[in-house]
Amino acid sequence: MSGEVLSLKDVSINRGDTPIVHDVSLTVAPGTVTVVLGANGAGKTTLMDGIAGLAPVTSGTIQLDGAPIEKFPVYKRSQAGLGYVEQARTVFRTLTVEQNLLVSRSGKGDAEKVYELFPELKKRRSLQAGHLSGGEQQMLVLGRALISDPKIILIDEMSLGLAPVVVRRLMHAVKDLVGLGIAVLLIEQFANLALEIGANAYVLRKGRVVFDGPCDEIRGDSERLHEFYFGAMPTDAVVEAGGENQ
Ligand SMILES: Nc1ncnc2c1ncn2[C@@H]1O[C@H](COP(=O)(O)OP(=O)(O)OP(=O)(O)O)[C@@H](O)[C@H]1O
Ligand SMILES: [Mg+2]
């Protein structure tokens, strides 16, 4: 097969009985960050949930390193090398930083590898995670996915509620993951920050891919992005950000 880490072909995904994601084809190349963008309700999380096995894939194929996984339960996808940082995922606040890492590993994972990527966490390894700053907590959330040696990590909006300067640090950390040979599929509300570190981007609208191409092509082009998010609008139309539902 191809050399892609992750490859989706014509994938449709339901929420319960409701079709949400329609015929999505997408690839993530080794050593790259691939960005998924779209308005609120466009189906980004549903797409990730379908890949991870948390929402039913009704048609199409999903391959991880060339092997089909769409029929696997969640734990087998994880064993096959798929890490998932879910939207609004948090740390165990009363456990120490190190305990957070150790309870998250499957098998052999080594906390030192996480500390190499996040020296901030090493300094605080014995601190209760609830005392970390918001940005450090997100680093720990990333570290919890990293410790099990995934081939790819799906990251769903880890920047919620964080200041742009902190988000920038996190984006650098995501880029560093790629340096460790881990591919990333990234959903991010700060589109331009994600497009800075990404190679390719996909934009979803109403569960369908409306743009697929290099990040360079849409970075900084807010007009074009807006059109992808919401469709071409009459000039006098009032658009409320986040108002688009399936
Ligand atoms: N459990 C569910 N049952 C039925 N519909 C759902 C369920 N979860 C989400 N949906 C619907 O699926 C659509 C896509 O939601 P999804 O959460 O995938 O969007 P999103 O792009 O991740 O949005 P956001 O940017 O707000 O996180 C929305 O219309 C939402 O209302
Ligand atoms: Mg979402």
From TrEMBL:
Alphabetized GO MF terms: ATP binding; ATP hydrolysis activity; branched-chain amino acid transmembrane transporter activity
Taxonomically, the superkingdom here is: Bacteria
Which segments cross the bilayer?
Answer: none
Q: Which InterPro entries match?
A: AAA+_ATPase, ABC_transporter-like_ATP-bd, ABC_transporter-like_CS, BCAA_Transport_ATP-bd_LivF, P-loop_NTPase
Domain ABC transporter: start-end pairs: 6-231
A Pfam family hit? ABC_tran
Which SUPFAM superfamilies is this protein grouped with?
P-loop containing nucleoside triphosphate hydrolases (SSF52540)
**Per the UniProt entry, what are the Gene Ontology biological process annotations, in alphabetical order?**
L-amino acid transport
Q: What is this protein called?
A: Branched-chain amino acid transport system ATP-binding protein
